[in-house]
Amino acid sequence: MQNAIKITDSIYWIGGNDRETDLFEGLWTLPRGVAYNAYFINDEKTAVIDTIKADKLSDYMERLVSGLPEGRTIDYLIVDHMEPDHSGSISIMRRLYPEMKIVGNKKTLEMIDAFYGIKDGTVEVKEGDVLDLGHHKLTFAMIPMVHWPESMVTYDTTEKVLFSTDAFGGFCALEGGIFDDELDMSLYEDETLRYFANIVGRYSAPTQKAIAKVRGLDLKIICPAHGPILRSNPKHIVDLYDKWSKQETDEGVVVVYGSMYGNTKLMTDAIARAACEAGVKDVIVHDASRSNLSCIVRDVWKYRGLVLGSCTYNTELYPPVATLCRTLKNKMMKNRYLGICGSYSWSKGALAELQVFAEQGGDWKLVEPTIEVKSCPKEPDLELCRELGRNMAAAVKSPRE
Ligand code: FEO
Fold first, then answer.
1. Considering the entire predicted model, what is its pTM?
2. Which residues of the chain have pLDDT under 50?
């Protein structure tokens, strides 16, 4: 039997750790798993904040039942976010607690009907409404598109606890500790950036609006829907999300190549070496065929410079590089520098598509020269690659104007 874990005298963590699912949303690798956090408030009226992914129901129910005093029921289920990693057990909760009121905003309630066919026993809340549990007074703030249109946060004005849904969350299961002061946060911050870049980053502008709301709150504890509970310095995670969603970048260059027989790799190796010799310490090289896409996206989000190199494959961009370009375009990245190079043997194609990406794939400032070689790079080609590496190094020394 798993137990509820106390956060304050009357607030409990009742979430679960998922180390079995390989891919979050069927897309993003989970080498260290992911936590689905949910919370129980024991008051004159009881409340649960969010449910859990359906296949983790037993963890959630065991924890919930362990925290629920004998003879008590659940009065409110507050639904902050409808993605099924959090809403997947609403139906069973309704069957177990038929008198329980399901609390959500207008869009949430529409989605609950669409996903689970539940229309009755709901309470619609709006921005600033208060739900009085007795000791705890909960209020609600809408944070649309962080990460879905219905997303909202719940703030306990009594204990200054923010239940922040996907905002301020990250990948990585909770490894024994559930609080930031119980864990090595360097690993979690890395996984939080990977989560932000791949899941939330596209919605950076809405994230900025959400942060403006959160900055006005007196915050003692942040309880996100994924990742550690932040109680030692909750402002730190807000600052990180603020930086990432402003698309502020660090000095560094990410070099990604797609290469069948190593000739394009010769070009990007020359670029990476030249950038390093020009003084850039953080040069990260990825083989697009082998590096995990989510890790490439994380690194591109972090650093100011990106170099893409691709061979031509069947007259087009090499497929793993094409997938990366499509993904980066979807993330709507800004404020970065881009260098491009390509190769071909019997038909051109790759460099032309990279040029289209440079113009239409986001807010990239192209760093010259662009380089295209036939079959394999010769010394003059490699010298052009070194020139690109040096120019990129000079560019990433300071943020774009
Ligand atoms: Fe963790 Fe957008 O769901």
1. 0.96
2. none
